[in-house]
Design goal:
Length: 305
């Protein structure tokens, strides 16, 4: 038989190294140190201090295997280590329930908790009994939203004190209210999001329609402008032919007047592109009448009287 102090020191060293490896996320080495410590602890299995150390080693080992995604190997190993769920410390049982709840193996959670809560060990451990009952309530039943089963579960926990029974009953009611509030808030958030998306879609459609109208109007204005320019060019071209044919009969004053006519025609072109259709038509008509009088005075002055 090894010296008691030597065994405890070796186990403590294994726990320290396993804890360090867990913090460093070296889970393989953490699990190795845990197994090593458990092997040493079996040499002093009847000692209370060694049993506490074994509990700590199992807790570290479960965390390491969970991180390695080897959680399916956890329950068989622990039941072998303690000869069944009945002999497990409450911290180990609690961690088993939390692990299987994490992966949504709720049937396994129910089996583990039900077995342990009915053992003689659980009856003696009043504080541990309440801890496991609360863990099962909040992480198994509440996650499945089994509000109706909470009352039946608490009634089956006959070893709970009256104070703990009252506290856990109030906790179950609070969990239900919180879940309902959360669900209502999520529904409101979803509705608000849908409304915002609808408004955004409508705004984008309006903007697209406005851009299309603007492009259409620009195209129309451009077509009108090009048409006006063609008409002005045709007029000026015809005027130029007329002037070229009669250039020998035209004196310098008439040429000056013709230059003024060209400038006047250019102003007509600019005015035709400003304002709406009705105002442009009226303005062009007025300018046209004025141009007619000017041309008559320039080219046929003798016909004025």
């Amino acid at each position: 038989m090894l010296d008691k102090n030597c065994v405890e020191n070796d186990i403590t060293a294994c726990i320290d190294r396993a804890t360090d490896f867990l913090l460093l996320k070296d889970f393989e080495k953490c699990a190795f140190e845990c197994i090593k410590g458990l092997i040493i602890a079996k040499q002093q299995a009847d000692e209370e201090s060694v049993n506490r150390a074994s509990e700590m080693l199992c807790v570290l080992w479960i965390q390491a295997y969970a991180e390695l995604d080897r959680w399916r190997e956890v329950l068989p190993f622990i039941t072998q280590e303690y000869q069944g769920i009945e002999g497990c410390p409450v911290k180990v049982v609690q961690l088993l329930v939390l692990l299987h709840a994490k992966v949504e193996e709720f049937a396994q959670c129910h089996a583990i908790a039900s077995i342990w809560l009915k053992t003689d060990q659980s009856v003696k451990d009043v504080e541990g009994y309440a801890v496991l009952a609360e863990t099962y309530l909040t992480h198994v039943l509440a996650r499945q939203k089994k509000w109706q089963e909470m009352g039946a579960f608490l009634k089956s926990c006959t070893s709970l004190s009256s104070e703990e029974m009252t506290r856990l009953t109030q906790l179950s009611e609070l969990l239900k209210i919180t879940e309902e509030d959360t669900s209502s808030r999520k529904e409101r958030e979803i509705k608000d999001l849908v409304q915002r998306l609808k408004k955004r879609s409508q705004t984008q459609q309006c903007n697209t329609h406005s851009r299309k109208n603007a492009i259409s109007e620009v195209g129309t204005e451009s077509d009108c402008s090009r048409g006006n320019h063609r008409r002005i060019v045709t007029f000026v071209h015809g005027l130029g032919l007329y002037v070229s044919r009669g250039l020998r009969y035209i004196n310098l004053k008439v040429i000056y007047k013709l230059i003024f006519v060209g400038m006047f025609v250019y102003l007509i072109t600019i005015q035709a592109n400003v304002g709406d259709l009705i105002s442009n038509t009226t303005r062009i008509g007025q300018v046209g009448e004025a141009l007619k009088k000017v041309l008559v005075s320039l080219l046929w002055p003798r016909h004025q009287h």
